[in-house]
Structure formats: structure tokens, C-alpha cells
Amino acid sequence: MSYLAPSEFVTKMVDAGESKIFMSTRDTVIRAYMAGAILALAAWFAVTINVNTGQPLIGALLFPVGFTMLYLLGFDLLTGVFVLSPLAWLDKRPGVTIGGVLRNWGLVFIGNFAGALTVAFLMAFVTTFGFTQDPDKVGTVIGNIGEGRTLGYAAHGAAGMATLFFRGMLCNWMVSTGVVMAMISTTVPGKVLAMWMPILVFFYMVFEHSVVNMFLFPSGLMLHAKFSVLDYLVWNEIPTVLGNLVGGLAFTGLTLYTTHVRTAAKRRIEAVPAPRVAA
After folding, report:
1. How confident is the model at residue 269 (pLDDT cuts 50, 70, 90)?
2. Entry pTM
3. CA distance 238 to 274
């Protein structure tokens, strides 16, 4: 695996953020749509594994296949652009503005949501034979996930909201690390291995990922789980998005940028006077 030093791949992070800001609306939305759809398929795949094997670790070990596919195909997740796009603005790249960063975030959110929603409908249709019967075991579990991770947080009030936010932060610490670690290698096996590790951590630890939740919670609503659209937005999606933003930018983007691009002045070595020798 050809390895790039941090000073090299962090510059690639800034370059990637700049290119995403100037990408056309059409290309941004299409790439985001496909990223949301592929990640939703991976989530469906992982839940199916968990149900069939009873071993969540196996599902977590295999879930990253979706992330690696969408990354290698050049598609964009909201959790990734939360970290990359602002770096181009911080680096004062020509033409990059806060408005451009927000535009990129908004378009990727729309595309991710549309892609995840498409797969949510397909999953609900398939697991109920076109909504003509109750969902199968996988569909039932997916429906229950949405209920437990909205009303479950709401039952704890402010503490539940804080827990949700922090799980969102922890999630994008790991997911954005996966995005960045793919840049440390110039070979496909190296990129896949580097991405796999942090994505495995996020999924097994059941942290909150805004795009995965764009699939899980609408799926639950389509399968008549006992929570509302308002529950989903207030007690999951909105706090998760904010947590993903803060965690990815604070723990991954800014730490790497400030220590490998805008580095502090190096310490000077003071001359030490030679010891005097008694006559």
C-alpha cells in the first residue's frame, strides 16, 4: 500500500473540498443520490445479516462494503462534505465562500435523502410483498429501530437529546476519519483497508449517522412503526445532523488542517553555554 504522509493527504482534503464546492448542481445531486442509496442498501444488508446470524459483529464487519463502494465511485455523503468543504474556505481558496459551502451541504443533503428514501420504499415494498402483508423479520426489525431511536431518546428528555447529539458527534468522528484515511493510499486495496476500520467502529458502536437514518426511519414510518415524522425530525435527524457536523469538523477536519497545513511555528533550540572548567 503506497502511503502518503499527513502533510500530503491533508492538502488533498482541501483540494477535494474546493472541487465539491464548484461542482455543478446536477452532478452534486446525482452523486449524493447514489451515495445515499448505496449506504441505505448497505444498512439493509447489515440488518439482514444481524437478523439471520444473531451476531451484530458480523453485520458491522460487512457494512463498510457499502461505504467503500460509494467512495471509490466518487459519490458524496453529507458526513464527508461536512468536513471537506469548510477546509477550502478556511484555506482561503479563490472564489470559495460560506455561501458556497452551505450550498454544497444543502444539495448533498437533498441528494442523500432522496437516495435513501428510494431504498427505504423498495425495502418496505419487498419485505411486505407490495404492502399486502406484515413485514418479514428483517422489515420488522428495521421498523423497530426507528421507534426505539426516537421515542427512546425522547423518554429521557434533555439528557436523551444530549446523548443523541454526542452519538452523532462520535459517529462522524469515525466516518470522516474513514473518508480521510482513504486518501493516505494510492492503491485500491490500501484505500479499502484504511476506510474499513473506522466505519466498522461507528456501525458496531451504534452511533448516529444522518444518512443511514434517512433510510432507517422513513422505512419504519412506511412499515407503520409507532412514531411520527415530527418524532423522527426532532428526536433524531436534526440533532444527528448537527452532531455529525460538529464531530467531523472538530475531531477530524480542523485537527488535521491546523497541525498539517496551518502549523504553528517550530520551537527554537536555544544554545546551551558550555560548562566552565575550574582552573
Report:
1. confident
2. 0.94
3. 64
